[in-house]
């Protein structure tokens, strides 16, 4: 038997390499106890059961091996939405909120426009747009059915019933769909990129991350195919790697898009580029 405080302190010692050791230990322990983090400090002398201690220690060991904390606790916050995530989905990143902001900037508050999120994963982008623009018709697609199941559960849980889901290889199963705004955070890492062997991405689905030799295979395809489905004056908004903005702009220009602009994320990195169908 032990209480919260010593268990937490000993776990923090396990993660000396992590700046966020205390936060991570708190998140894992509050997940096991099914309480808010503040509970740990309000009730530091609360006794834990042997089962709770072993559950917590097992999670700490997995974290120590490098498993992302979002997979260990099964959820991640994005745009103030609590989203379920599993190893079938990418873990939504804060920088992707920029894509949501740019989509919303093109959708008046009462808009009932058709929006398509290609490669929705956990549903992060589609659900954030649906939350902010409740009259929009939002279609979320992915070619990974197991990811789409999670996205649908997230929509259900958040009561965002206006979002439709469709398994599709990019635009392939979407013949009849035209859209005013198309958003995508596609895979954009080159297969040889050394970052693939570091941090959280080691545990994320490879097909959600990698896109050919230069990381641009999916983006090339989306830029070409979306022209067929965009309404006149419709927008294509793409997230990309910090060093891909020039290449993405060039691809959009070659296909005849107008008003091509790149937007920086909170870290100042060029992260989203958009273009308008003439
Ligand atoms: C970088 S993840 C983005 C997930 C989510 N939109 C987000 O921002 O958190 C890319 C997504 O594209 C999906 N994807 C990869 N190839 C695809 C394809 N050919 N057609 C449709 N979706 C694809 C992956 O399954 C994955 O969910």
Please provide a written account of the structure.
The chain has 278 residues and is α/β, with parallel strands linked by helices. It folds into 2 domains: 2-65, Helicase, Ruva Protein, domain 3; 87-276, Rossmann fold (3-Layer(aba) Sandwich). The chain is 38% helix and 21% strand. The chain is built from 10 helices and 11 strands. The protein has helices at residues 4-14, 21-33, 37-42, 50-65, 69-73, 97-105, 124-132, 145-158, 217-229, 245-254, and strands at residues 2-3, 47-48, 75-78, 81-84, 114-118, 137-142, 163-167, 179-184, 230-239, 258-264, 270-276. The strands form 3 sheets. The chain has a 7-stranded mixed sheet with strand order 7-6-5-8-9-11-10, sandwiched between helices. It has a two-stranded antiparallel ribbon with strand order 1-2. Strands 3-4 form a two-stranded antiparallel ribbon. Helix 1 (4-14) crosses helix 2. The N and C termini lie far apart (68 Å). Residues 90, 92, 96, 119-122, 124-125, 142-144, 147, 169-170, 185-187, 207-208 line the site of S-adenosylmethionine (SAM).
């Amino acid at each position: 038997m032990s209480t919260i405080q010593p268990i937490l302190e000993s776990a923090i010692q396990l993660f000396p390499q992590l700046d966020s050791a205390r936060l991570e230990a708190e998140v894992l322990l509050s997940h096991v106890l099914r309480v808010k983090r503040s509970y740990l400090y309000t009730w530091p002398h609360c006794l834990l059961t042997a089962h709770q201690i072993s559950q917590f220690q097992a999670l700490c060991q997995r974290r120590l091996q490098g498993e992302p904390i979002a997979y260990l606790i099964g959820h991640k916050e994005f745009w103030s939405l609590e989203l379920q995530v599993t190893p079938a989905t990418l873990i939504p990143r804060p920088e992707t909120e920029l894509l949501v902001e740019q989509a919303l900037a093109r959708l008046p508050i009462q808009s009932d426009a058709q929006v398509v999120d290609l490669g929705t994963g956990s549903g992060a982008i589609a659900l954030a747009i649906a939350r902010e623009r409740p009259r929009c018709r939002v279609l979320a697609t992915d070619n990974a059915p197991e990811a789409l199941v999670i996205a649908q559960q997230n929509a259900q849980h958040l009561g965002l019933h206006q979002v439709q889901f469709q398994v599709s290889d990019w635009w392939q199963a979407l013949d009849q769909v035209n859209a005013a705004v198309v958003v995508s955070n596609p895979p954009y890492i080159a297969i040889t990129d050394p970052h693939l062997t570091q941090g959280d991405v080691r545990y994320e689905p490879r097909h959600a991350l990698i896109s050919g030799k230069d990381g641009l295979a999916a983006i090339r395809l989306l830029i070409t195919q979306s022209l067929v489905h965009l309404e006149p004056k419709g927008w294509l908004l793409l997230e990309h790697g910090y060093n891909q903005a020039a290449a993405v702009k060039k691809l959009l220009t070659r296909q005849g898009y107008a008003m091509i602009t790149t937007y920086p994320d909170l870290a100042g990195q060029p992260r989203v580029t958009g273009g308008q169908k003439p």
